[in-house]
Design goal:
single chain, alpha+beta, Aminopeptidase, 2 domains, twelve-stranded mixed sheet, 11 helices, about 25% strand, globular
């Protein structure tokens, strides 16, 4: 009896062959952050070749089944392989057909929330399928090929902070996710926010990244081994990503994170093409990213909810003062 590969198995093979797939859509990343049985993928195939993919994660949210974003996952969404020599009209018609077919393959759940990769620029067919959209921004240094030019793009403040931090700390790296966990938690504790990740989750994610040679942790420590700041960087063939960071609250005044980001950018230039700060819509975070000459890159937050659920969530937010 001949066994037939499932779409998920075909996607795993596709991920092993296609280096340009963003890390957040790789099968091994999804295994780590979702659990192997909690994600799946919709595929469009032509003559046995994958033309488009749409990985998705299903979990219970507010008591309902939802397609949503896994922890620490910046983007997901649709990836389309375009036909060579397509005219603009043909390309748009092709996009619409592919997107419609992929959406029809998704499980029927009452809630959908996903951040799409910034390479996905035409969400109009999703609008016609009843989805809504909000534009968000990440910050990117788009070309790491000349680090002198990159550094020249830094603000005067960033350069000053780097020179200042270099006199106080040394930059190192190690493989201890536990050590990083302890400093990363302090970001949330300082703001009175519950830490969103368990140590077991971070270990699982970190182990997957190490096995795939896709991460590095940078530390700023003084001569006594005191950690001032730390950042966690991952990468794929196209981009590095500033995934997490943390600083000792009483030592933030030394701005050692700025030095670490510069060291991470220099390292990223040896393994990939660009640097993604995983930008935020929070003004102070955007202003910090801008210090490095990073430019805002728009991406789509796509969502769709059953009207009854939307009303229930609105009522819940009102009753709990979360509006």
């Amino acid at each position: 009896m001949v066994s037939v590969m499932t779409d998920k198995e075909k996607y795993r093979r596709y991920c092993s062959l296609e280096a340009s797939i963003p890390i957040f859509s790789k099968d091994w990343w999804l295994d780590a952050v979702c659990g192997e049985d909690n994600w799946n993928v919709a595929l469009i195939k032509n003559n046995g070749e994958i033309q488009a993919s749409f990985p998705y994660y299903v979990k219970r949210k507010f008591g309902f089944k939802a397609i949503t974003m896994p922890q620490l996952t910046q983007t997901a969404g649709i990836r389309i392989k375009y036909l060579k020599g397509q005219k603009q009209e043909s390309r748009l018609a092709y996009e619409k057909e592919i997107i419609n077919e992929l959406v029809d393959k998704l499980p029927k759940v009452p809630m959908f929330r996903q951040n799409f990769h910034y390479s996905f620029t035409n969400w109009q067919p999703l609008c016609w399928k009843g989805f809504n959209q909000t534009t968000c921004y990440t910050y990117i240094i788009d070309d790491l090929s000349n680090l002198e030019i990159v550094f020249e793009g830094f603000s005067k403040t960033a350069k000053k902070n780097i020179r200042k931090a270099e006199k106080i700390v040394e930059v190192s790296s190690n493989n201890s996710i536990e050590e990083f966990f302890s400093i990363n938690k302090k970001v949330y504790e300082r703001q009175g926010i519950s830490y969103p990740h368990s140590l077991d989750f971070l270990k699982r994610m970190d182990n997957a990244c190490m096995q795939n040679n896709s991460r590095k942790i940078f530390y700023a420590k003084d001569d006594k081994g005191k950690i001032y700041s730390a950042i966690y960087v991952i990468w794929d063939a196209e981009s590095a990503y500033l995934l997490m960071s943390g600083s000792e609250p009483d030592l933030r005044v030394y701005n050692c994170k700025t030095l670490l980001v510069w060291e991470a950018i220099k390292y990223a230039a040896t393994v990939t093409k660009r640097f993604d700060f995983e930008g935020s819509m929070i003004e102070r975070v955007a202003e910090y990213n801008r210090q490095f000459g990073a430019v805002p890159k728009p991406y789509c937050y796509i969502f769709k909810e059953n009207p009854i659920i939307s009303k229930s969530l609105n009522l819940y937010n009102i009753l709990t003062h979360k509006h």
